[in-house]
Design goal:
11 helices, 53% helix, single chain
Amino acid sequence: MDNKIPHPAVVITGASTGIGEATALELDRRGFQVFAGVRTAEAGKRLQAQSSPLLSPLILDVTDTSQIAAALEFVREKTGGQGLAALVNNAGIAISGPLEIIPLAEFRRQLEVNVIGQLAVNQAFIPLLRTCRGRIVNVSSVNGAFAAPYLGPYAASKFALEALSDALRIELRQWGIKVIVVAPGAIKTPIWDKSAETAEKITQSVSPEGLKLYAADLDVWRQVVLDVARKADPVEKVVEKIVHALTSARPRARYYLHFSQRFLCRGFKTLPESLRDWFIRRGMGLR
């Protein structure tokens, strides 16, 4: 990061709530010129009420090419040619359910937001990052390393984001652009409520016969989700990792919140598949 720039500029997607909102406010507090991508004007006003004048909200749906283009033009104008110090790709949704019966439209939406949208934003802002050898932080998940049952759509999107990050890290090296992954586990954010609402809508759109096939498993799975949500980490733990990734002279390529998550994403994958499946079933209480 170029310390000669008094207020290095950073774009953050998905800043209406949760990780994105908390990151935007923390970077604003640290003197960054923050461009916070939000879905509504109301969310933007809420952010501005808590921040300095350096923070500017952007109406930015990562699946809307016209909004991405408008955001790029706004950032280019406001930064006046100094370039972009960082891009934090945080926008995302979580769609769950049995893969056999998940509506394909919902599966496509999962990939459109969490994969295609991420790439579209990267493609738009990389030229500005190149100007001052900036950094890209992609907010992934431990589910980008292993796929839990009934989280197949979400895990597929995070596996894909991990692949994009690995490729970009090498492709952009020649311009000094670092690509960093932050892979948290469960975090206390509104995504839990949004995911529950989405799951309920999906349930109403599939056949009763299909749901009946998975009824026993889904009852167990819902309880597991409630337990995980109850034990979720506070959002500040993720923000701490993102800030380190943006400000450290030598950032890591990948950040986890806990050693257990590092083991889950690395060591756990070395076990034979049959043993991994047994541990997952046992841990979730599935037959």
